[in-house]
Write a structure and sequence with these properties.
The complex is a heterodimer of chains A (316) and B (322).
Chain A: H1 2-29, H2 34-39, H3 45-55, H4 61-73, H5 87-122, H6 127-140, H7 144-158, H8 174-208, H9 211-218, H10 223-235, H11 237-251, H12 255-260, H13 266-275, H14 279-307, H15 309-312
Chain B: E1 6-15, E2 22-32, E3 37-41, H1 48-56, E4 64-71, E5 74-75, H2 81-87, E6 92-95, H3 99-102, H4 109-121, H5 125-138, H6 144-148, H7 157-169, E7 175-179, H8 187-204, E8 207-212, H9 215-219, E9 224-229, E10 232-238, H10 239-244, H11 249-256, H12 297-301, E11 315-316
Parallel strand pairs in B: 3-8, 3-9, 6-7, 7-8
Antiparallel strand pairs in B: 1-2, 1-4, 4-5, 9-10, 10-11
Helix pairs in contact in B: 4-5, 5-7, 7-8
The chains are: A mainly alpha (316), B alpha/beta (322).
Chain lengths: 316, 322
């Protein structure tokens, strides 16, 4: 097991190197010159050239990457030209919001998806199964912002139970913080559960045909144990994969949800940086998101090994 | 003969197919006394596995089952799910064909034995683990303590089948159904597994149904043999009697298809010509008629009943017995 973790960690290094290089290239390829953006349209070419030299923009791209990487490795991600805020401060201020949104949304989605998937798999082919798979399919074709607006209309405007927008930090008022996250989390969960439910349902149906499930029945085990221990564990690899991809995607913030509910998350930071040509912030955020994505995939790989001993022993 | 442990009456199993319902089992009657051994023999697709699944109540959801299956006085077909669950393990157990697929790949051997003991015997984990070690040792698994912590893929096929047998025996069942228990195993291991089953069957005075396509397997190990063809029992007799005086041409053909050790090298193996009938389109007459070398008009016109016209203790379904 230690060897397995170690091998995976070694694979991680080149991936992160490639991700940072790509981040750098993409940030450099964005149209518009950084020095001109900072100095404005009216700046003289001499002033622009001077700033370019000062910022190292006149160096070849590989040298700039080297310098940037060197700085990053020394913990210096740079700071915004616009606000003077460091990348580190900007990201760490928004990250808890996006993380809370992601975790609550995905957990809620799993809480909806797993029981429904098991139910539909057991009752596969019945009217009940067709109803829920149909519902999931219908939900998949309903855009997320529609759900958000309907939720706001119902729970904030009509019933006035929950705030429509805004965010309260957890340490200030935990209850208000939770309240401000309910509608956004439900919106995320609504977007996520149909996919999770459908992949688990189909894997579960396949697993329930397996000989070892017939064997578990023949052993006289309780139905709950057959479903939750014998069937769910081997059926959950695709679920873990899809949930992992979605979590990775949500680390980058759920832009639409953050915008509609006015949550100060990573998504809005990223889009704000693009609009403001705040390349340093943009680059830092992309780097963070990429590392997060790689980490989530790493955790998913580890979960495979936890779920399936054949992977752990390197036989599958 | 004491009261039967298992009595199967007029079992039919219909499977839906795109070509219409397929009658996999077509009116089978069987009885089995406590502690006795019955061999069910037939080629692939003859309905022997579907019959065993019917007895175990493990038919595919789409299958339609008719008839009665009386086990220790209860009708398994109408038994409520919870009562059936309590029966499985302590009274009725099974060993499946392929130990590669019948053990759960993501649970340890220990978990899979211990859970059975806990479900039925109310043992705590420590007691169930001790019992698990004893069971593995009893079925001839070396270093049983270590095996408990291992996963199925870490064991050989023969070892896995021994584990499956240990699980099946764990709650001392009254009836064990072994569905081609050696077909997926190496030839060298087959005899060991069959001997293990026979030994445990005698030691525990357990009834055993041994399902196989190989008449050679049932020859020395069963009290009675039922030969199945196209969903029906076509010959049924006490084992010694079957081998000394078989009456059904199909049984003869099955026996002829077993390679003999004493035949000279390169002797062609007599295979049964033709294919088993399409069971979505039942024949009016005997279902073996198209492949039978003794067939005539009568065989095409009417199905021979499974009967004992000579009152000699063996049943057969043939108009022209050998």
């Amino acid at each position: 097991m230690t060897k397995f973790v170690g091998r995976r960690l070694v694979y991680l290094l080149p991936v992160l190197l490639a991700v940072t290089l790509l981040t750098f290239l993409v940030a450099s390829l964005l149209p518009g010159d950084l020095a001109t953006t900072i100095l404005g349209d009216q700046a003289t070419p001499e002033k622009v050239a001077a700033l370019r030299a000062q910022m190292g923009l006149d160096l070849p791209i590989w040298q700039r990457y080297g310098i940037w990487l060197w700085d990053v490795l020394h913990g210096d991600l740079g700071r915004s030209f616009r606000t003077g805020e460091t990348v580190w401060a900007a990201v760490t201020a928004r990250l808890p919001v996006s993380l809370e949104l992601m975790v609550s949304g995905v957990v809620l989605a799993l809480v909806i998806a797993i029981p429904l998937a098991i139910l539909c798999a057991v009752k596969s082919g019945t009217a009940l199964d067709r109803f829920f798979t149909g519902l999931a399919f219908g939900k998949l074709s309903l855009p997320n912002y529609m759900v958000a607006i309907l939720l706001i209309y119902l729970f904030a405007v009509e019933l006035n139970w929950l705030p429509a927008t805004g965010w309260v930090p957890f340490h200030e008022d935990p209850l208000a913080n939770l309240k401000s996250f309910i509608l956004p989390a439900v919106t995320i969960a609504f977007a996520e559960w149909p996919v999770l439910m459908r992949v688990l349902r189909s894997d579960m149906i396949a697993t329930l045909q397996e000989d070892y499930i017939a064997m578990a029945k023949a052993k006289g085990l309780r139905p709950a144990r057959i479903l939750l221990v014998h069937a769910l564990k081997p059926s959950s690899l695709t679920l873990v994969t899809v949930a992992g991809i979605n979590i990775g995607r949500l680390i980058g913030g759920a832009l639409i949800v953050e915008t509609i509910f006015a949550l100060p998350g990573i998504g809005r930071l990223l889009v704000g940086a693009i609009y403001a040509r705040d390349f340093i912030i943009l680059q830092g955020v992309v780097l963070f998101v990429a590392i997060g994505f790689v980490m989530v995939n790493f955790i998913v790989d580890m979960l495979y090994a936890v779920l399936d001993p054949r992977i752990r022993h390197g036989r599958a | 003969m004491s009261a039967p442990l298992l009595s199967v009456e007029g079992i039919t199993v219909d499977l839906p197919t795109p070509r219409g319902p397929l009658r996999a089992v077509d009116g089978v009657d069987l009885t089995l006394a406590p502690g006795s051994t019955l061999g069910i023999v037939g080629e692939s697709g003859c309905g022997k596995t579907m019959l065993s699944r019917a007895v175990l109540q493990l038919l595919p959801k789409r299958a339609k089952l008719g008839g009665r299956i009386l086990f220790a006085g209860r009708d398994l077909v109408t038994l409520p799910a919870e009562e059936l669950r309590r029966l499985r393990g302590p009274e009725l157990a099974v060993v499946f064909q392929d130990p590669m697929t019948s053990l759960n790949p993501v649970l340890t051997i220990g978990t899979q034995i211990v859970e059975t003991l806990q479900a039925h015997l109310g043992m705590d984990t420590a007691a169930a683990t001790r019992r698990g070690v004893e069971l593995l040792a009893a079925v001839g698994i070396p270093a049983p303590e270590q095996r408990l912590r291992q996963y199925p893929h870490q064991l050989s096929g023969g070892m896995r089948q021994r584990v499956a047998i240990a699980i099946a025996l764990s709650c001392e069942p009254k009836l064990l159904i072994a569905d081609e228990p050696t077909t997926a195993l190496d030839v060298t291991v087959q005899a060991q597994i069959l001997d293990l089953l026979a030994r445990e069957q005698q030691r525990r005075h357990m009834a055993l149904i041994l399902i196989t396509h190989d008449l050679g397997v049932v020859a020395g190990r069963t009290d009675e043999v039922a030969v199945m063809y196209a969903g029906r029992v076509v010959e049924r007799a006490p084992t010694p009697r079957l081998f000394t005086r078989m009456r059904m041409p199909y049984t003869e053909a099955l026996l002829a298809a077993i390679p003999k050790l004493d035949s000279p090298p390169h002797t062609p193996l007599p295979a049964i010509a033709g294919r088993p009938p399409d069971q979505t389109r039942p024949l009016k007459g005997c279902s073996f008629e198209p492949r039978c070398r003794y067939a005539d008009e009568r065989c095409r016109a009417a199905k021979p009943p499974l009967a004992d016209p000579e009152r000699l203790g063996g049943l057969f379904a043939c108009w022209h017995p050998l």
